[in-house]
Design goal:
By secondary structure, the chain is α/β, with parallel strands linked by helices. Helices cover 43% and strands 25% of the residues. It comes from Exobacillus caeni.
C-alpha cells in the first residue's frame, strides 16, 4: 500500500511516499513546475508517479485558519483534479494548515541553514502532509 503525498506550490511540488505498509512517510524530492506554461503536471512528477505502484495520492489542501478555501486551495484542488483525470489512482485532499510553518520550525531547530531550508522545505511539508494522513488512518 504505497501512498504519494504532495505539497503543491506555485513554483515547486514537494513529494513524499509512504513505506509499503503505509506507516511512515519519506521525502523524495522537490519538483519544479511552471503551470503558466502548460506545465500543470511536470514530467518529473509523472515519472515519479509511474515508478511506484500507488494505491492513493494525497494532495495538501491549504485552508485558511477559519476553514475556508482561498486562491491557493483552489489551485491545489484543480491540481488534484488533473491527477484524477490523468491517473487511475484515488486522489485525496488533506488539510495542510501550518505544515510549511511547522516544517520550517523543525528545520530551524535542527540548525539547517536558510539556504538549505529553502531547498528542502516543500519536501518536508509533503512528508508532514502524508504522515498526518497516514496517522489519521491508523487510529
Amino acid at each position: 500500500m504505497r501512498i504519494l503525498g504532495l505539497d503543491v506550490g506555485s513554483k515547486t511540488i514537494g513529494v513524499a511516499v509512504s513505506d509499503e505498509m503505509g506507516w511512515t512517510a519519506q521525502g523524495i524530492e522537490t519538483v519544479k513546475r511552471n503551470p503558466h506554461h502548460g506545465d500543470v503536471l511536470p514530467e518529473r512528477l509523472k515519472e515519479i508517479i509511474k515508478s511506484y505502484e500507488l494505491d492513493k495520492i494525497v494532495v495538501g489542501l491549504p485552508k485558511n485558519m477559519d476553514g475556508s478555501i482561498g486562491p491557493s486551495g483552489k489551485i491545489c484542488m484543480e491540481f488534484a483534479e488533473q491527477l484524477r483525470e490523468s491517473y487511475e489512482v484515488p486522489v485525496m485532499m488533506w488539510d495542510e494548515r501550518l505544515t510549511t510553518m511547522a516544517a520550517e520550525r523543525m528545520l530551524i531547530s535542527a540548525d539547517v541553514s536558510r539556504k538549505k531550508r529553502k531547498k528542502v522545505i516543500d519536501k518536508m511539508a509533503a512528508v508532514m502532509i502524508l504522515q498526518g494522513y497516514l496517522d489519521s488512518n491508523q487510529r
